[in-house]
Amino acid sequence: AKEMIINHIDSFIQERIEFADQVIASQGATKIVDNDVIMTYASSYVVEQVLRKAHADGTKFRVIVVDSRPKNEGKTLLKKLVSAGIKCTYITINALSYVMKEVSKVFVGAYALLANGNVISRVGTGVVAMMAHRFKVPFLVCCETYKFHERVQLESISFNELGDPDDLIATQRDDDDGEVLVDWRDNRKLRLLNLVYDLTPVKYVSMVVTEVGLIPATSVPVVLREYADKSKQLS
Amino acid sequence: VVCVASIFIIIIIIVIIMSVKSSTSSSSSSSSSSSLKKLKWGALDKVVETFVTRLKRREIRGSSAVATNTAELLRTIVSRAQFEDVGELMDTVRLVGRKLQLGNPMELCIGNIARRVLYIIRQETAHLLKVQKANKQRSDEAKQYDVGGVSLHKLLDEPAQSDVDLAKQSSEVDMVKLKQPICEEITELIDEIKNVRSQISELAVEHIHAKETILTFGLSRTVIEFLKEAAKLREFQVYVCESNPSFSGQTMALKLAQEVDVMTTCITDSAVYAIMPTVNKVIIGTHAVMADGSLVCYTGGRNITEAAKAHSVPVVVVVGLYKLCPLYADENSFNTLQAPSEILRFEQALIDKVNVENPAYDYIPPDLVSLYVTNFGGHNPSYIYRLLAEYYDPEDYEL
Prior knowledge:
The complex is a heterodimer of chains A (about 240) and B (about 400).
Chain A: H1 2-29, E1 36-41, H2 45-56, E2 61-67, H3 74-83, E3 87-92, H4 96-99, E4 105-109, E5 112-113, E6 119-122, H5 125-134, E7 139-142, E8 190-193, E9 197-200, E10 207-210, E11 213-215, H6 220-234
Parallel strand pairs in A: 1-2, 1-4, 2-3, 4-7, 7-10
Antiparallel strand pairs in A: 5-6, 6-9, 10-11
Helix pairs in contact in A: 1-2
Chain B: H1 2-39, H2 44-56, H3 63-80, H4 86-103, H5 109-141, H6 149-157, H7 163-169, H8 175-201, H9 204-207, E1 212-217, H10 221-231, E2 236-241, H11 248-260, E3 263-267, H12 272-275, E4 281-284, E5 288-289, E6 295-298, H13 301-310, E7 315-318, E8 354-356, E9 361-364, E10 371-374, E11 377-379, H14 384-391
Helix pairs in contact in B: 2-3, 2-4, 3-4, 3-5, 3-8, 4-5, 5-6, 5-8, 8-10, 10-11
């Protein structure tokens, strides 16, 4: 019985995680054409695979990596892409409107896709999606089907994760004003808020790239239902 | 022989560079120095140069300080220098304004003040011409008519002074009589700049109701004064975006918690879309207001106002009208790029392979702003172009 479970888990990992990533990479790479300017936000393993695959296929494109505080995950992605030989530009999230005119597509990863099509992703993805929508740039979410969930949520506050507020204190400034908020606890009226995730509404998502194909965000419950039926059949 | 030839070539190159340098510098300095000689400046030239150097070194911080200093400098020039006629005075002011603006091209209020002074000169000249004409008529007609009524009637019948008339009659204007009213008007302008924050704050209580949640970003003294006035009568809380990479928002949060004594929460710029459903109102300051009601403000403003529009949250911009500029902008035109090291430390693996863009300003189109609260009341963004007519003359839009 134990062996059966272990085999099942192994095949799950194979099919729905590792193999899924490869399929998503090849599917997503078909969406990148020559002279594209691809924007991505923070760091997503799947998006990195998509970009690597497109680069390996010989497509000529460049990437704009958008980063934000306090995690600065975009920097890690930037290093990986540069070492792969992809031309990169690095900006913070505040410079979005400055570069968005040049962008042809936006690729982001996700932590979860909810049943109503909303995307839970790193905080700041909502801002990027909103600006892409404003400048009429397609916004693609790369997401494996194991991240689909039956829950529904309308905005980012009702269910979220709080990060360590002290992460906001350390800034990258070299001068004396570098750590203005270091004594924030001394002041009763001052609080720091470090949200980890945010919710991107379905109207901003152009397409979701999954291992079952390129689907609109509204089709998430359809996929969920298919998998639910399959698991019912197995049991 | 090889050494001699190489030295010879080096000498030739140096001579060529020196001649190019001297020709460009002499051409620019000759044009300005010849016009300066024409205008008989003397010691005032040094004052101007000192100010331009201070601007170039960014020693003067803040738009209101720059605006006040510019106005004081122009007032000094108007009162101390000798001018033959109004045209010379206006040319001087225009020249100085252009020079100062080049010292800091992003500080648009320099140009605004120069344009305001030119408008003041035009107004005072027109007024003085009218009075002179009325006096002349009065002395001519004193034998025939009653002094008071008819000539006053004639005065009212005078057609509006056009610029053509101004140029024709400028030689008739008494320069000595002109200087004092102009200097008084410039002093009033300086007072107006000083009182901007207190005048704006008077409207604060009307715009903030109890238990509101307000969002702001960056460090703006005007917003702090605005909220301070409202906090006297209303209870509210404030979210402040920290404004990467300057982190002026963090200083703002600290000041709000300490000086204004309201519940302040500092958030990251990326959380602005997530937090917007809980916000009632966005109140921001700005760097400049453009002719169509759009804004040039510090980075992060565009994200905030877009998120506010997406959630139907009103955006209130508190700004003094000396920041109103008769020019137009878009996302890339009025901007400077700052040091990339602010966002990406110099690291060997990345430094020469990555393009880093760190713009200092953001452009906000007029449809994202709900209301301008200025030192002369509240205005719709679509009304801003009418305010231009009150402060600037269309001839001066290009300094």
